[in-house]
Amino acid sequence: MATIYQVSELAGVSLATVSRVMNNNVRVSEATRNKVLQAMEQLGYRPNSIAQSLASSRSNSIGILVSELHGPFYGEMLTGIEAEFRAAGKHVIIAAGHSERATEEDGIEFLLSRNCDALILHVEAVSDQYLIDLSKKQTPFVLLNRQITALADRCISLDNELGGYLATRYLLEQGHRHIAYIAGPMWKTDARDRFHGHQRALAGYQLTAEEALFFEGDFRETGGSKGLQALLASGRPFSAVVCANDEMASGALTAARELGYEVPADFSVMGFDNVNFAYYTYPKLSTIDYPVSAMGQMAARWVLQQVYQQSSIEVQQIFDPHLIPRDSVAEAAVT
Amino acid sequence: MATIYQVSELAGVSLATVSRVMNNNVRVSEATRNKVLQAMEQLGYRPNSIAQSLASSRSNSIGILVSELHGPFYGEMLTGIEAEFRAAGKHVIIAAGHSERATEEDGIEFLLSRNCDALILHVEAVSDQYLIDLSKKQTPFVLLNRQITALADRCISLDNELGGYLATRYLLEQGHRHIAYIAGPMWKTDARDRFHGHQRALAGYQLTAEEALFFEGDFRETGGSKGLQALLASGRPFSAVVCANDEMASGALTAARELGYEVPADFSVMGFDNVNFAYYTYPKLSTIDYPVSAMGQMAARWVLQQVYQQSSIEVQQIFDPHLIPRDSVAEAAVT
DNA sequence: TAGTATTATGTAAGCGCTTTCATTTATAGC
DNA sequence: GCTATAAATGAAAGCGCTTACATAATACTA
């Protein structure tokens, strides 16, 4: 591989000049620039990004930590991130945290050791304090899908409360008055926020959430099926159930079918997230869209703006979810 | 950040010695090693991987090019790859090729410019010749899910023909004799191979594929629904349809329902790939499992073995698919 | 115990760039 | 035409490591 030195020789200029041409430094005359460009072409020169990084103390790499690389969610996020950085000539190093504290901390440590210029973190298990401490170190980072007051300016998240509100309001508008709720693990902020939105929507109709119609699930399919069974077993009538995510909604759908109920004829089901398979369930799941790709892209922009000084870029920190009506919700029968 | 120099000062040894303890070079006495380790600890020293790379001309990074980062397929693959490399202290740089020639070549160029030690490529649009040319350059690479004779030793792929065979044989075993086929784009090798497997299975029962019961789809949902409509319109009776992938199978399922047919009562449907949502369709899709995560892992091992000389590692190049029976296939009614 | 083979450590030359500072060359002002 | 100023280029010092090669310390042999 040709080096900058060979280019400089062939072009008959100094190293420094070649470097200037590469970095589009203004201080090069047209004539020289052309000579250099031609020499590069001729040698098939490609800069050594490692050497560039060492000399400039910038790796042009951004570390991404997500919980999983598979699954319907993170792929979308990565897509948004990668596209944005690729266009900017930066590259992305990925690591998986598997929602476990030790693995997440490990992953961050790993990315840091890779000299990333910045980090985009989607972490669940690590403590707020850990992140606050991390923020005092060198490497800047953004947090996706997490709100920490002390770090508010580096958080990009969804208005989960609004999403919860929209889901339940939709059901109310369809005439439902007895609405069951299958929540996520309530120690997770987003699970709590979604439920609060649910409560607010009910309050708008002078209703409150009934204790007997609440089930705390685990954001997985089994949580949804267990939840539906528990709800049914409670004996309290309901005409709709909102699930705090699509996995649980899918579980509820399956359980309903197995128990001989028909959705949405017997009761309606709402999901949350609009993951890819929500479209493949039967009936197709009505849900709340989580604009995860856009949020990933925005995280990338935050980095571009804060770390690489691309100041023209606008950053939006809070995203709004919106309703995706499909087939799993119907109007309530008039009682 | 502390440098190796500061460590060496604190420990009272030379640069070289510190470097040796880092690289676990044997030629260091216990006493010195401990002194150095302690100094590192004390300074919170972390080696600068960029400088290491420049000096050793090894970046410890592996470039991954996949078609998409989202979707049910590539995430699994990346999971397998990342886990393997992470454990080996290597890192992964990802880029998306979007199944377009220019973007794929671009992506490869990009990864190359990042000084990757090796590449793992899942490319569809780039020509065989391009890859053969690439193989003559410095950077080694493995090909996932692609067979090129001239590059056989760096191909890791699924036995698609076998998969196609298994799918159809299963249907035959269930008593089906009139089996329709919705293929992928026949210019793609895997689509062709799967179809050949189908033919071989039929031949085993002294049957041949009927022209009228063949439809060339596009591996997408719409291809499946259009395909089913065309098949139905042909007027030829069939009791089962095998789709060359799960997306098309899902499309067929939806179309069947919309046209008033019931699966598997009216006819059975087979998919291929076993992507995550295959479990969420109704009825749950019987399909052929594509061990994509294992294959990703194997690609990573190939790299570890070939590029980083971890010779103890075994590499398997051809993977076998296997049958996943679920609910979309039933026994054929006796005629 | 001298002489040799080993083993442990140090010295210093890069790796391929960026960037500061100094120098040369062109442009302008009078 | 000569100085003052700006623009273009060059020289060279790193960036933080690895790795020959040289040297010093220790162990082994006869």
From TrEMBL, chains A, B:
Gene Ontology MF terms in the entry: DNA-binding transcription factor activity; transcription cis-regulatory region binding
Pinpoint the HTH lacI-type domain residues. Answer: 2-56
Q: What is this protein called?
A: Transcriptional regulator, LacI family
Q: Keywords in UniProt for this one?
A: DNA-binding, Transcription, Transcription regulation
SUPFAM superfamilies assigned = lambda repressor-like DNA-binding domains (SSF47413), Periplasmic binding protein-like I (SSF53822)
Instruction: Identify the CDD domains for this entry.
Output: HTH_LacI, PBP1_GalS-like
The answer to whether the entry has keyword Lipid biosynthesis is no
Q: Tell me what organism the protein belongs to.
A: Arsukibacterium tuosuense
PANTHER family per the UniProt record, alphabetical: HTH-TYPE TRANSCRIPTIONAL REGULATOR GALS, LACI-RELATED TRANSCRIPTIONAL REPRESSOR
